[in-house]
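> tool_call: predict_assembly(chains=two)
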Amino acid sequence: MRQGMVLCLVLALLAGCHAGGKSPGPEVRVLLWDFQEAHEGASYVRALALLDSALVLAPAYPRLHFLRGDVLSTLYRFEEAEAAFLRALELAPRYQGAAYRLGSNAFFLGQHREALAFYRQEARLSGAGEDSAALSAVWAQIGRVYARLGAADSAGEAYEQALRHDAANDQVWMWKAELSEDAGWLSDALMQVQEAVRLAPDDPAYQYLAGALQYRTGDYEAAIGHLEFVIKAQPWHAGAHYNLGRTLLALGRSDEAARYLEATDSLQALAADIILARFAVQHAPGGRDEWTVLAMLYEQAGRYEEARQAYRIARQVAESN
Amino acid sequence: MWSRLCFALAIFAACQPPDGDPIPAAAPALPAVAFEEVTMQAGLGGFSHMTGAFGRKWFPETMGAGAGFLDYDGDGILDIMLVGGNPFPSRNEPAPPALRLYRNVDGTSFEEVTAEAGLGSVHSYAFGITAADYDNDGDTDVLVTALFENLLLRNDGGVFTDVASAAGLADEAVWSAAAVFFDADRDGFLDLYVGNYVDWGPDKDIVCTRVGDRKAYCTPELYNGLSGAFYRNDGDGTFSRRSGVFDTAPGKTLGAVSVDYNRDGWPDLIVANDTQRDLLFENQGDGTFVEKGVYSGIAFDENGRARAGMGLDIGVVDETGEVTLFVGHFSAEMVGVYRHTRNGFFVDRAAVSQVGRPSLRTLTFGLFLFDVDHDQDLDLFTANGHITEEIGLVEAGITYRQRPQLYINQGAGLFAELPPTSHALLAREYVARGAAYGDYDGDGDLDLLFTENGGAVHLWRNDTPGGGYLQVRLQGTVSNRDGIGARVVVMADGSRQEREVRAGASYLSQSQQWPHFGLGGALQVDSLWVYWPGGSVHRAGPVAINQVVHIVER
């Protein structure tokens, strides 16, 4: 959901952004249509080539740099992506979304202070507009960075700010719940995640936390439904298997519990392998083998959509090499 | 397999109580702890640990080493043994002694006796020490874990001889880390568990990068883990390796501790693994074990993820009377806090206990429970330090050198970290690894010892004002001579405390074996019980406070 939300925000920003600079000529517009088609078809290497072609024709058109940064991020080429987003900002200092994406890249790379600076820059830009949902998303990210930096009070304040802009921002309720959970305030955490579930009942991450917290607070029967929901939606979810196993164990349903607990070990090992494979891709984003390994692991875990995307990128990387 | 699994689950199948929120939020009253760094005055200032690093960033360089308080010469006061490190065996460089032994002269200063104790020519890329009288001859022997061959240093009147090979403990040339002496079959002879780490050698080293193209230390996920080994003491100075569950359970072990967690009189074993699930070997009442980590709830974090387990300790820290396990973890992972709930289950209380959040920014290696302020409950010390010097460049807010942390027990299973402003020593940063406690100066309170990777050792004298104390020294006659596995319970001023005598805990280190009790304002110990591993129970009381009592098994 987190990634999905970021994506939604980016799409919203893309749709509404103030591109700045002169409107591109017809040749560039054609290339952008082709780009969009390639992007929608997950042909990222081709999409990148189309953007590069467009940039030859309109090197000062900031939107092209922004889109380039977006594609490069998808390909885990974060340093190049950063340069592209920075170029977009250089050409159009009020370009909405670019600082946000720079913040997200920095956050992904563990550069939390840089992320914070970029998100704050985005908050200043978004604050000038009317888009409260976008502003809420930016404040949510600020809160998340503070949480990672161990500044729980600042994180809490940022989440409150995010909710003032958009009380229906389900992601903020989820992150508030995580903050409360880390503090050991399980009842508060449960109430907050239940609000997230109310706002977005189909989100497995929210359902998972709700179930895990209900298990931990002793409401075993209520936990089961949430955790079963997650396992149905994400059969690879080690945490849901583990918590459901322990919940069933607590209810004396030992045989059923054994099935879920037994699965936990292999699922979490697979999840760890996926994290390593993603690191490998991050270090060698042009490596076909790295992408293929990642795709195979996704496939093994039943994460077919992500597997398909990784396979596509592996193929495109091989072709471009 | 499945039938056994189901059977185990059936045994576990009982409701466990939920864990509620902590008592909110009045600012806790924290004691004014007082420590003084006495490393130099004590004569330990010349020590520096050697990692053997020579620019290749070999994985073992990051691990650091252990330290221990032990009475090697039987004079009743604690001496100090430190793992000094060595060059890598393949480098063929002149090597200093792998271990450094410091004799406690007068309770304030130490003199180095490495050579006199027969350790001057002991060379090994060593990591940890575990001390116990494995041959029941009345002096303290030492098991040293190492890269490739472990050492068993038999103590004969204050002189050590490596007898690992003759004792049957040099059967495997692997990387070992944690070791625990415990009497698994209660035959009066201490058995041994050795936790192995990963399958590493110069020819198996993997190149990793974190900052640019420069080689950095790899994380353990990239190496294959090694299962641990269980050796039964044959009672004649030799050990026999036993196969079974220990050979099939996952490895990458950095910490291990024995404890009779379910109070059935048989010692169990808990093992902390690095990026693999943690293990609970439950003694079946005959010296054989079944592994129940997942089902008991200690194997993973709350989300079913294996964490980077390092040092660990276990003890009764609250009014439930049940044991709570503490496990040090990597940065961005909370210190694990698992309380037993009487029915074979543990519940994860890291966040609720208030230990979790303050531990998220630290990488904890050494970790132990001790009553720092004599207020009749166990507090928690963690020795922290990262493995990557450049970590600050790639992960904001995480540093290579890190503060140690002292968590004061607030009762009801809650802890409060002493802020760094409370004491200058707690504000300093170290690359800490092994950590141990012991009353080296004989003043009744517990002092701290911890090592730095590739650096100094630190001895902190505890000068915290507080209540009375009692220390108990056991001598087994039917049970093993050290009384390892004995449970000692005291009642004083309406408060019940218990300790279990053990060899091996924290990270690669040996703390004082003799149980220590802070007694607050109690004027006497009303009752004292010793539950010997041989089965007998000793009761005494009332017992005067502020003394060391010696109890021989009858």
